[in-house]
Amino acid sequence: MSFFSDLRAERLIAEIRGINDPTHPNAQKAFQKLARLGAGAIPKILDALAVADKKESASYMEILSQLIDNKSFPYLAQGLADGNSRTISAIGWALTRSTNYTPGLLIELLGRADIPKAAVLEIIGAQKDRYPVRDLLQHAYGQEANEKAALFRIIGELADESTIPELISRIEGKDSAARIHIINILGRFDRPEVSAALQNQLRDPNKMIRQAALAALSRISGPVNVGPVCQMLRDPDLEVANHAIDVVVRAKDPDTMKHLIDVLKDENDYARRAAVEVLNHLGTARDIKHLLQAIKDDDWWVRTRAADALGKIGGPRVVDAVIELIRDEDEDVRRAAIEILNQTKDERAVNFLIEATKDKDWWVSERAVDALAEIGSKKAVPALLELLDTNNTRSLPTIARALGKLGDTRVIEPLVRLLDRPEKEIKVETINALARLADDKRADTVRNYIQAAGAEIADQTIQHAAIRAIEDIDSRYSGTALAAQAQAARMAEPARTLLIERSDVDAVIKKAEDAAAATMKLDISTLKSGDIIEGRYKYIEKIGKGAFGTVVLVEDTVVDERLILKFLNPNVSQDEEMMKRFVHELRYSRKITHKNVIRIYDFLYMRGNYAISMEYFPSHTLGAEIVNDKPLPLPVALQYGIDIATGMTIAHQAGIVHRDLKPANILINDERLLKIVDFGVAAAHKEGDTQLTKTGYVIGSPKYMAPEQILGKKVDERADIYSLGVILYEMVTGQPPYSRGDHMSVMYQHVQGKAKSPLDVNPQLPPEVSALVTKAMAVDKLKRFQSMEELRTALEKLL
């Protein structure tokens, strides 16, 4: 720019500012003269834009758009580099409006570190019709992630069928991010060559490529080769497998079922589940039968895995199909159908299962009885009572066990007659069933029957079953147990409890909160010894604080007894969904009355705080006994394991899964009496809340969590069995199986399941103890002990 042009531009801009009205005729004449100065005026215009008002800026921007060409472009490029946000915005507007410059000049600016890339990309987007897709692709590869994504968005907007060959030719490149963008663009085109190219990407080692390819295929309505896609249901990455489900379901290929057979037999639980997800969308009774027939000649474990997968997540289509197959003429199909219904626990199957108890195949008949027990419908009781008169000795233990689970006290007298049978297994199952059925009115009568049965025969198994059953009845209905229940009733506050038997939990909680709203909130941190809470509880001392709450020791002045109050932390109590589940779980938890379980008295709202009141048990934690990486004496470890399994058996019978068993939740006093604490706390969380919730704490304890809980899957009592297995491991070796790394690392190790055997860590350990612990800790829950009762019995044999 010449000196004179520079001077003239400055004078004209000063004149425009002096007029202070861009629309004034004199100002308009000045703008026209400024434009006639040509490209040399651009630097001064850019300087003026930095301080110009809105109207003045509009006129300058109009001049810039007139002056733009290849020769003046460098001035604008430098303005993008040096200008403030207003200047950059003005330049962008001008470049967007003009087409008097080579479009490649803009792309070259993406290579300059001093140029704001977002502004350049916005201009390119506005001018996209001037760019061939090939040119944009060539320049996209060298960009950083954000710029690359922006360019591929523009490419996606430009792409049409004529660009498909160019895109496919680049799908196998080395740049993974670029490949993913290209795959996403191709997913818009319903063409055979696109489908074929995408399916080729399913073999790529990069899971992100596989995931993108499947997502793209799921958007294509044309034919898909479902064979390779079905194999993706076995992909180790769950997101990839989920996308594969979508593709297979969308394809609706008539040959899908034959490709699912191998997947349904896979060792990986999630692969089998993925196959069942597909079945639940596409399967019919004919399809299910075909699958069951296809696997009937396989190893029993393969069949069991497949049946478990079909049963656990079956859904309406699978259940309806399987119910139909209970009557199939093929014995193997009927057996498989019964196994599946044992897992589904679906009420719709009750009548069909009752019919199946009369099946000529003893296996179908027995497993139908088991399935009815799992469903828990008392509609099955009359049919099961009829079966008690059967001459099939093999089936009587199963029938007795089922009647015990169904909980109908009317069957006590018919069951008692089985105690006269000579068969040991029948006696043991009958004793166990009677113990479960005993209530406060019949406890003494049932106890007498069981005592007599145990005394008649000098068989240790029967005697041991009788002793255990009587202990169970006494723990619930002895004078001491009844006194403890009476005390618990006195310690509860019926007028203010949140555990009343109503379904409207929201209303209960709101009523408590409204009643306390007018009072000053209780600050737990300011409590001093002797302070009275709510006119009833005398504060003694703080015992501890954790993720869920603050634990304090108080004296209940009404009943003159010490108890524990666990005040929930705000991050817990402010979660409405959690509070609903909390109240629901605690209603059941406080019904557990057993010497190996801490008694929960009540759940209260105290001046802005929620608190659980529970039994005070002077003790230390199990963790305090496992120190310095030294194992506990084996008899002590086994007895602790038996006591934990005993308490958990009672809890599971009440329908409560703990979900957070760990040494810190196991209390032991000086007489080695063991009690489990914190029922209803971890249980209050919904399925899937596995790692970090929105309230910011870890659900469960990573060192002791079951793999299915870590993965956010539905848990049952076998999750507690796994946790007890980990506790046993620590007791007999002195160290937990997985402890290295952060929480996420430990969780991953549980899912992998590659812990050293207890025997490798402690060579002095009996092999049978090591085997028991390993079985309890199996990653696949089907390979664990299937009940706490089974685990307790196994432990007792080792003591």
Automatic annotation (TrEMBL):
Q: Which Pfam families match?
A: HEAT_2 (PF13646), HEAT_PBS (PF03130), Pkinase (PF00069)
Please indicate if the UniProt record lists Metal-binding as a keyword: no
| Keywords annotated in UniProt | ATP-binding, Kinase, Nucleotide-binding, Serine/threonine-protein kinase, Transferase
| InterPro entries with a match to the protein in the record | ARM-like (IPR011989), ARM-type_fold (IPR016024), Atg1-like (IPR045269), Kinase-like_dom_sf (IPR011009), PBS_lyase_HEAT (IPR004155), Prot_kinase_dom (IPR000719), Protein_kinase_ATP_BS (IPR017441), Ser/Thr_kinase_AS (IPR008271)
Q: What would be one Gene Ontology cellular-component term for the protein?
A: cytoplasm
Instruction: Write down the species.
Output: Steroidobacter denitrificans
Report if keyword Ligase is assigned: no
Sorted alphabetically, which SUPFAM superfamilies does this protein's record hold? ARM repeat (SSF48371), Protein kinase-like (PK-like) (SSF56112)
GO MF annotations in UniProt: ATP binding; protein serine/threonine kinase activity
Domain Protein kinase intervals? 537-799
Q: What's its EC?
A: 2.7.11.1
The protein's name is non-specific serine/threonine protein kinase
Q: Which SMART domains match?
A: EZ_HEAT, S_TKc
> Which parts of the sequence bind ATP?
K566
